[in-house]
Structures are given as structure tokens and as C-alpha cells.
Amino acid sequence: MNNKEVLLVPNKSKVNRIIHLSDIHISNDINKKVIYEKVFKNLFDIMKKKKITTNDLVVITGDIIDQADFLTPECIKLTKDFFIGLTDFCDVCFILGNHEQPRYDIT
């Protein structure tokens, strides 16, 4: 046995590919909703074309939302739909970024 570590997905198979996403910054601005939907659709189309499967893994390294202090229902729904769309292909690992942390102490 060699010293290489093997990354496994929950189905206990080796990870084929890692798709790295970062700094998506989903906005609370309702006027940007259509833009995000188009970008997400384009990403999903690319993932389909590249035949992303359950042996692949999406890793999001922070800043999926733009502002954690105030989240609109539209921002929450876009984020939810984005994660659901990604998990239709494979598992997703998400690491919180500074934009997922409130900037102000509201307590």
C-alpha cells in the first residue's frame, strides 16, 4: 500500500473529479434573479455535457451568498435551487466564507 490518501464519496467509491466553485455571491437584489438563473442553468448544462456523476464531487469554498445580514426570500430560494441542482449530479461539500457570517452583531 502506498502513502496516497483516497477521497471517497458517500457511496464508498473513489472521487473521479472535483468541481471547484467559489465566490458565487448570490445577491438579495431581486433584479439579478434572472441573471443567476441563467448562470446556474449554464453551469448545469456544462455539468451534463461533461457527464458529471455520483463519483464526482462539487466543492464550494465560500461566499455563496453576498450578504448574510439580511436575506430575502428570493435569495434563499435561489440558493436552495442551486444546491438542489448541483446535488442532482453529485454530492456537494460547502465551506463557509466570510460573506456567510453576519457583519454586525445584532444581539
Would you give an account of this structure?
Helix content is 30%, strand content 13%. By secondary structure, the chain is of the alpha/beta class. The protein has one domain (18-100). The protein has a 3-stranded parallel sheet, with helices on one face. α1 (33-49) links the parallel β1 (18-21) and β2 (57-61). α1 packs parallel to α2 (73-87). The chain is globular and about 40 Å long. It starts with 17 loop residues before the first strand and ends in a 12-residue tail after the last strand.
Layout of strands and helices, then pairs:
Layout (H helix, E strand, L loop, with lengths): L17 E4 L11 H17 L7 E5 L11 H15 L3 E5 L12
Parallel strand pairs: 1-2, 2-3
Give a brief rundown of this model.
This protein has 107 residues and is of the alpha/beta class. The chain contains two helices and three strands; from the N terminus they run βαβαβ.
Helical residue percent band:
25-40%
What order do the helices and strands follow?
Answer: EHEHE
The oligomeric state is single chain
**Poorly predicted spans:** none
Total strands = 3
How is the biggest beta sheet arranged?
Answer: 3 strands, parallel
Strand content: 5-15%
Q: Structurally, how many domains make up the residues?
A: 1
The mean pLDDT is: 85
Distance between the termini: 53 Å
| Rounded Rg | 16 Å
Structural class: alpha/beta
| Shape, principal axes of CA atoms | globular
* Strand order in the largest sheet: 1-2-3
Number of helices: 2
